[in-house]
Write a structure and sequence with these properties.
The protein is α+β, with helices and mostly antiparallel strands. It contains 15 helices and 30 strands. Helix 1 crosses helix 11, helix 2 runs antiparallel to helix 6 and helix 2 packs across helix 11. The chain binds one RNA strand through strand 8, strand 20, strand 23, helix 11 and helix 13.
Length: about 575
RNA sequence: CGGGGUGUGGCGCAGUCCGGUAGCGCAGGGCGUUUGGGACGCCAAGGUCGCAGGUUCGAAUCCUGCCACCCCGACCA
């Protein structure tokens, strides 16, 4: 591609709407343009990247035995009533009406449609298993779209749905898709990790998320370097401490703590470490009465885990200040279990503590030397905190580390949640009707582009992994419009590399060198060749990899072969 | 949906407090000089100051209402 025949539009300054680096660089590089909140045009340059991502996904899905189809984006409400999701999905489902006032939605996911296809087509066990997938535009009316295409409302997803005669076969395909996803993200050139995940609203049993590792990621994930354990922090079990609770050594003492509300203030005021304090959080119980949750001061309450407790109202909500005052006689910041009549649930780690500091249920007062059993009744015990670095791994094989990730893929064992609702039956060998087992497997295609940039950039711009770079190599001629020798050498190398099937971008704009260098670096082309009169006199051209510190010279007559080996090797 | 913030030319901003009819940088156009790290000079062009009402002789500026967008919290690929 010659730049004169392409469309490149870069900015020196990032639009102020962009907060994260990938969003800024995608706007500056002209990969995307915003149309409205969470909705973006993919400009020609960005589209090249997107297509490369899609093609890798498509190739590996095909290799994994999945079969591509394309389902409609617009779906009739009747199907969603059948699965009961028309009511359940909430405002995230974009609902539309046609001219006859019939209800439709713009599909946020395709379990209903694919199930309808399969129940019409598949009657016999002989037609199973099946795995249908598509790469298609979805719409989810997100509460808060942000970070550009990282969390858009309209986005492209690869979604796959598999159908099986029994659970064993679903498990086989689930592992197959796990391997397929690992191959996909490896080929994309991304540092990633598969982690055990919460199944969330989609339902089903087993589930794994695939995360691109990046400090700016929205998800906290944990892994064990000594084993293959890895999980989303939402899910990762905080195992009970091995140590038994020491006997009390201090008397319970009420202390005046004026203005102290947070654990940090408490620690500073009393000069105690956070591990010797207990945090009290009040949430609404299943009976709408306040329930007191206790976690160690340096730990964090995990709302997903709390959401699995039968004693609590779903979804979990913090109690209002009014109901807290009524139940405790004090405001948040001075709360504790002593004297509280309702349900108390303590994290496992709290149960191993003695002589700790906790709110006294009187404003501006705390207790020191508090002890379970002696100063208040034994509470119910549950795992309700986030794991922290150094916690023992739930598999017993080491200690946990934490890092951050961007969720780019998610695989689920749906089991029969949808196949029962949508009557996905088939006849088995003995002629009996059975319900299919289902799996579903998603990849956020547009999000991958943002995640790749988040993981691969420097102060000059994007450093795309080779597999998804918009171009493999950029030729930057110096004086293309002045020097016949430069033009001839650049045109020839361009033609030769193109003939080798390499994606070459020839920057034949009449720009100053600095402007061309800056643009090629901004848009993340992995290899750059500079051709100028200065080098040609010596029979040399200059080569620089996007990640190289310094350029180096190559003989002109070997240019094609050496560049080809660098493009294909690196 | 709550909380915070911003809307001025394609992009980044100043001007708003203290009303007097819009300015800077970048990008884009023309001419000239330049050409190995985002050049320089001159010239020209480009704005319903988010929208609607109001106050006023006069509103980007003050008042009211609305809209859009961004950021912080519950969602998810």
């Amino acid at each position: 591609m010659r730049v004169s025949q392409f469309f490149i539009s870069t900015l020196k300054e990032a639009p102020s709407e962009a907060e994260v680096i990938s969003h800024q660089l995608m706007l500056r590089g002209g990969l995307i343009k915003r149309l409205t909140s969470g909705v973006y045009t993919w400009m020609p340059l960005g589209l090249r990247v997107l297509r490369k991502v899609e093609n890798i996904i498509r190739e590996e899905m095909n290799r994994g035995g999945a079969i591509e189809l394309l389902m409609p984006a617009v779906q009739p409400a009747e199907l969603w009533h059948e699965s009961t999701r028309w009511e359940q999905y909430g405002p995230e489902l974009l609902r539309i009406k046609d001219r006859h006032q019939r209800d439709f939605c713009f599909g946020p996911t395709h379990e209903e449609v694919v199930s309808d296809v399969v129940r019409r087509e598949v009657k016999s066990y002989r037609q199973l298993p099946l795995n249908f997938y598509q790469i298609q535009t979805k719409f989810r009316d997100e509460i808060r779209p942000r970070f550009g295409v990282m969390r858009g409302r309209e986005f492209i997803m690869k979604d796959a749905y598999s159908f099986h005669v029994n659970y064993d076969d679903l498990l086989r395909e689930y592992r197959n898709m796990h391997d397929t996803y690992s191959r996909i993200f490896t080929r994309l050139g991304l540092k990633f990790r598969a982690v055990a995940a919460d199944t969330g609203s989609i339902g089903g049993t087993g589930s794994h998320e695939f995360h691109v590792l990046a400090d700016s990621g929205e998800d906290a994930i944990t892994y064990c370097p000594q084993s293959d354990y890895a999980a989303n922090v939402e899910l990762a079990e905080a195992v009970a401490p091995a140590a038994t609770r020491p006997a009390p050594t201090l008397p319970l003492k009420k202390v005046h703590t004026p203005g102290v509300k947070t654990i940090a203030e408490l620690c500073a005021f009393l000069k105690v470490p956070a591990q010797h304090t207990v945090k009290a959080v009040v949430v609404d119980g299943a009976d709408s009465k306040p329930v007191l949750l206790l976690v160690r001061g340096d730990h964090e309450l995990n709302m997903i885990k709390a959401g699995k407790l039968a004693q609590l109202k779903q979804p979990v909500t913090f109690s209002s200040v009014e109901s807290i005052r009524a139940a405790f006689g004090a405001d948040p910041g001075s709360l504790g279990p002593a004297g509280f009549k309702g349900t108390v649930i303590a994290d496992r780690a709290v149960m191993a503590m003695a002589d700790f500091v906790i709110g006294a249920n009187a404003n501006d007062h705390h207790y020191t030397g508090a002890n379970i059993g002696r100063d208040f009744a034994e509470p119910a015990v549950a795992d309700i905190r986030n794991v922290v670095t150094g916690d023992p791994s739930p598999d017993g094989k080491g200690t946990l580390e934490l890092c951050r990730g961007i969720e780019v893929g998610h695989i689920f064992q749906l089991r029969t949640k949808y196949s029962e609702a949508l009557k996905l039956g088939f006849l088995d060998e003995s002629g009996k009707t059975q319900i299919m087992e289902m799996g579903c497997y998603g990849i956020g295609v547009t999000r991958i582009v943002a995640a790749a940039i988040e993981q691969n950039h420097d102060e000059r711009g994007i450093m795309f992994p080779r597999a998804i770079a918009p171009f493999d190599v950029a030729i930057v001629p110096i004086g293309y419009h002045k020097s016949a020798a430069v033009k001839a050498a650049a045109d020839q190398l361009y033609a030769e590399l193109q003939a080798e099937g390499i994606d070459v971008l020839l920057d034949n704009r009449d720009e100053r060198p600095g402007a061309m260098f800056a643009d090629m670096e901004l848009i993340g082309v992995p290899h750059r060749v500079v051709i100028g009169d200065r080098g040609l006199k010596e029979g040399q051209i200059e080569y620089k990899g996007r990640r190289d510190a310094e350029p180096r010279n190559l003989p002109l007559n070997e240019a094609k072969t050496s560049i080809k080996s660098m493009v294909c090797g690196g």
